[in-house]
Specification:
alpha+beta; 26% strand
Length: 74
């Protein structure tokens, strides 16, 4: 995966992997920060094509990677 992750990259990733709302995507914090518009408030999550995207705060995702997290509903 390339280091620069933009909206088109995420949309293609979602489509190519046939992802649904049953997952979340997690990005390296630097990749996530490049996606959000920095204003007076800092976004903690994004939603693209019905899928939530969050920043990795645990150091698990390398820069340029997209991690897929399964969401379980009770």
């Amino acid at each position: 995966m390339k280091n620069n992750i933009d909206l088109a990259t995420i949309k293609n990733f979602i489509a190519n992997n046939a992802l649904t709302e049953n997952v979340m995507l997690m990005l390296h914090p630097s990749n996530f920060d490049k996606l959000i518009i920095k204003g007076t408030k800092r976004a903690k999550a994004l939603c693209i094509s019905g899928i939530n995207i969050i920043a990795d705060n645990n150091g698990e995702v390398k820069e340029g990677e997209i991690d897929v997290l399964e969401v379980k509903f009770n």
